[in-house]
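Priority: low. Protein: Aminoglycoside phosphotransferase domain-containing protein. Input follows.
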Amino acid sequence: MEFIEFDATIPPRNAPQKVADALQWLRGVPAPSNVVIGTVGGMCLPYRVFSDYEAPFLFSSKEALERYTNKAFEWVPLRTKPPPMEIIFIQSDMDESNFAVDKQGSVCIFDFEVVSLLPESFASFTLHAKRSPFIDAVAGYLQWAPCNLSSMGKAWQILNIIGDNTLGMSVFLSCASSLTR
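Result:
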């Protein structure tokens, strides 16, 4: 493991453009074929839209996640159908403490086990729904479109209100019963 020296004069909160550049680079990393939606560490998605911040399933494909989210969207009236999902890499835990700037001016991403393959709309929701000055500044530099924020917010409400976050679906691998951490 390499020792990284950090520049204490540039805390991440003062470097939102550098963090945005790192996230844009991460977004450009191509998703592997036959992708399983989740973290690079193989965990279920630790994501704010799900009850208890964790997906109830390890989704076998983007189509499986689309079926699940469409099931959640059935509970709320939508004016527009969600767009097709482009899968990208993103830091799921978008918090200032998960970034630092090293002495060479490069951004380091911490908590890498929760870097996830997510639909672009989920990544956009992460950037635009969490209200913090740091995330707002990063989102401003990224200028990613706020994809379906209303729909994602409604899905979040449904998944956090109902008692069964599986939405009656059992065709996926359950995180609770099939994965060890």
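The chain has one domain: 33-172. The first strand starts at residue 57 and ends at 58.
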